[in-house]
Amino acid sequence: MALACTFFLKNENNNHNLLVKYISYSTFFIGIILSILNFIQIPFWIGWNIYLVNEKYIDVDNSLKFIYIIGTLFGTFFGMLSFVLFLNFVDANIDNSKFPISNFIPLLFLGMALFQMFKFLKKYY
Asked: What angle do CA 40, 22, 32 make, to 5 degrees?
């Protein structure tokens, strides 16, 4: 919900001056730097890997753990690449005057939050 509100409020302000300084840099390097600074994914990966180790899906004593790490890196990269290319395709093929793509991101986060709340309430109540 916090992510949805943050993106929605940023969308309302439309501060284009902030984006001007990023245009002078390569989009590839901006993506790399922002991915390195994405600390929100750390709790997910820590929890997921602890679960896999505790349930004995990953054996930390042999060299197969490196195959898991390489698979995770490639899977995450291609999953994010697919998502970005999909959003680029949607952005190129819709009429942005009726529904700007910048409205899609807050709606995506809002939808995920509502889905998680539904699953939580269904499980515990």
From this structure: 45
pTM recorded for the entire structure:
0.57
| Residue 10 burial (CB count, 10 A) | 14
| Separation between Cα atoms, residue 78 and residue 86, nearest integer Å | 12
Outline where the chain has alpha helix (H). Answer: 2-13, 17-23, 27-36, 41-54, 64-93, 104-124
Question: What DSSP assignment string belongs to 32-54?
Answer: HHHHHT-TTHHHHHHHHHHHHHH
- Residues 21-32 have pLDDT tens digits of 666 778 778 777
Note whether 111 and 6 are within 8 A (CB): no
